[in-house]
Amino acid sequence: MSEVRVDAVVIGGGPGGYPCGIRLGQLKIKAAVVEKQYWGGVCLNVGCIPSKAVIHAAKTFEKIGHADDLGITVGKPTIDMAKLQAWKGGVVGKLTGGVKTLLKGNGTQVIEGTAKLAKPGPDGHRVIVDGPSGQTTIIARSVVIATGSRPMEIPGFKVDQGRIIDSTGALALDHVPKRLVVIGGGYIGLELGIVYAKFGSKVTVVEALPSILASMDKDCVAVVARKLKKMGVEVMTDAKAKSWEDKGDRAVLTVEKDGKPVTIDADKILLSIGRRPNTEGLGLEEVGVALDKRGYIVADDQCKTNVGGIYAIGDVIGGMMLAHKATKEGETVAEILAGHKAAVDVRVIPAVVFTDPEIASAGLTEDEAKAKGHTVKVGKFPFAALGRALSVNDTEGFAKVVCDARTEEILGVHIVGNGASDLISEAALAIEMGAVVQDLNLTVHPHPTLSEAIREAAAAAIGEAVHIINR
Question: pTM of the full predicted structure?
Answer without folding.
Answer: 0.96
